[in-house]
Amino acid sequence: MNNLLYYLNTIRLRFTNILPVTETGIISQNQVKKEVWYNWFERTRLTFLVASFTLFLGVKSPWYSLPPEALEAFDTNLRIASAGRVIALLFALLAGAIALWFSRSRAARMLFWSGLVAVLLFPYFITTWSPTVAFLSAAYYKQGVEATHHVQRNFPKIQSQWKQNITLSQPDPLKSIASFSIKDSRFFQMSSWDLIWVEGFGYSNNFFAYIGRGWSATVAGLVIGLMACYLGLAERGFNALITDIAKFLPWAGVAIALLVVSMLLPNFIDRHIDTLYAQGQYRPVVTLSKILKTCYPPLQGDTEFLRREAEAGFYANQLDSDAIAFVKGLESYRRKDFIRAEEYFQNALATQPQNFLVREYLTTSILNQGVTYFNGPNSPTNHQTGLAIERFERALQIFPAHIEALYDLMLARAANGEFDRSASVARQIIETQEYPQQSNLALLGQAYLHNSWASYHDGKIEKAWEQYRQSIDNKAWKDSGEAQE
Question: Which residues are CB-contacts of 209 (< 8 A; sequence separation ≥ 6)?
Answer without folding.
Answer: 137, 140, 141, 144, 436, 437, 438
